[in-house]
Amino acid sequence: MVQIALEDAQAYARWAGRELPSEAQLEYAMRGGLTDADFSWGVSELPLGKLMANTWQGQFPYHNTAADGLTGTAPVGCFPANGFGLFDAGGNVWELTHTGYTPGHDAPRDAALDPPGPSLRESMDPADPGVPVVVIKGDSHLCSADRCMRYRPSARQPQPVFMATSHVGFRTIRQ
Q1: Residues 87-134: pLDDT tens digits?
Q2: How far is residue 47's CA from residue 166's CA, in Å, rounded to a whole number?
Q3: What's the CATH code of the domain at 25?
Q4: Into how many domains does the chain fold?
Q5: Tens of pLDDT along 70-80?
Q6: Cβ atoms within 10 Å, residue 106
């Protein structure tokens, strides 16, 4: 599901008896057990020349070659799952977390560790002071190697809590 703001995603999660993950929980899951790899599928962006995530191929925003056959969001399962069985752990859509954003973070190394991160009240994006922001992770189909190359588990961006876009979605976790 995309085009949804934080409160809507949280309402759905509560309705389903679940919750949004924290930044650390989502990054740990996206890594799929590969703690030192750059990508959720390993160390190489294109192992054996194979595309592993739904990203923009070509020069953004002028030309998408659609080498993967996709020009927007992809159905789940178009690319292989990571080591934990998680599909689309990089690319396709950014994913909301409940963690307030501040610049910088430490990568999670242990599933038992879940640093709480800043609250929404403490969140801060230097580019947009005074606006509450959460961390989004994983990148989207609008990311290309020449633009941002953020389809890595460690990639993170601020997202205003009230903003809904076509390239940001969410997944839920058990409480």
Answers
A1: 999 999 999 999 999 997 765 555 556 777 888 889 999 999 999 999
A2: 28
A3: 3.90.1580.10
A4: 1
A5: 999 999 999 99
A6: 10
Closest C-alpha to 96, from 175, 36, 23? 23
- Helix intervals (H) in the chain: 6-15, 23-31
For residues 127 and 75, what is the distance between their CA atoms, to the nearest angstrom?
33
Residue 103, domain extent: 1-44+53-175
Cis peptide leading into 129, omega within 30 of 0? no
User: Are the beta carbons of 66 and 57 closer than 8 angstroms?
Assistant: yes
d(CA 32, CA 89): 9
Three-class SS state of 157: strand
pLDDT in tens, 20-60: 999 999 999 999 999 889 999 999 989 999 999 999 999 98
- Provide the whole-model pTM: 0.91
